[in-house]
Amino acid sequence: MSVASSHNQPNYHILSVLVQNRPGVLARVASLFARRGYNIFSLAVAPTEDDALSRITIVVDVDSAPVEQVVKQLFKLIEVVKISELDPRRSVERELLLATIRVTSENRGQVVELTNIFEGKILAVGVEAITVSLDGNPDKLDDFEDLLRGYGIVELQRTGRVALPKLEREARLRAVKGKAV
User: Fold this and answer.
1) C-alpha to C-alpha distances, 15 to 44, 45, 47, nearest whole angstrom
2) What mean pLDDT, rounded, does the chain reach?
3) Domain range holding 69?
4) CA pair distance 59, 54, nearest whole angstrom
5) What is the C-alpha separation between 64 and 36, in angstroms, rounded?
6) Residues 6+ apart with CB under 8 A from 36
7) What is the value of pTM for the model shown?
8) Among 13, 18, 157, 168, which one has the highest count of C-beta atoms within 10 angstroms of its own C-beta?
9) Strands 40-47 and 53-61
């Protein structure tokens, strides 16, 4: 399921929420969304470069949740340190997909070739199935998943999005020239 509209206008918000790394914080955030009826399209959480903080990346459906209201509610949680809304057009988004695909001796090569075309990896090979992984932009994973369905997906898991703001042009150029930012 794609979350961008045909007019290249995203119909979702990406919120990067920096929180204190404490037990129960994720449950409180998820509970806040559930109580208000906001639809979470994707959720990923992990510690940051600072062990005391975690970053929660939440992809929220625009129609179910006015971003100003979501931000206002999130700031009421004492563990929330900072909230950034990331414009999908000005952010780098990645996701991981793992899938076990049903294969026969006749189509095994096709599944391997498809995985290679998408720059994925073969993780395990069995007599009747192959497990593959692919990381990248969520649209790329959507396309890969759609093509895999024709072979028969035994199991599939996606991580949910993680995102950071794109570097400004100056910062990208400094990094390329070896003057790390």
Assistant:
1) 11, 12, 16
2) 88
3) 12-86
4) 16
5) 9
6) 65, 69, 70, 73
7) 0.77
8) 13
9) antiparallel
Domain boundary among 62, 86, 110: 86
Long-range contacts of 146-152 (CB under 8 A, 24+ apart): 147/114, 148/99, 148/101, 148/111, 148/114, 151/101, 151/102, 151/103, 151/107, 151/110, 151/111, 152/101, 152/102
Give the tens place of pLDDT for each residue, 76-116.
Answer: 999 999 999 998 888 999 999 999 999 999 999 999 999 99
The domain tally of the chain equals 2
Q: Is residue 169 part of a domain?
A: no
For the chain, what percent of residues have pLDDT higher than 90?
Answer: 67
Q: Where among 86, 118, 144 does a domain terminate?
A: 86
Q: What does the block give as tokens for 64?
A: 């179910």
Residue 59 and residue 100 in one domain: no
Contact between residue 155 and residue 133 where contact means Cβ atoms under 8 Å apart: no
CB 86 within 8 A of CB 16: yes
Q: Compute φ and ψ for 41, nearest 5 degrees.
A: -80, -40
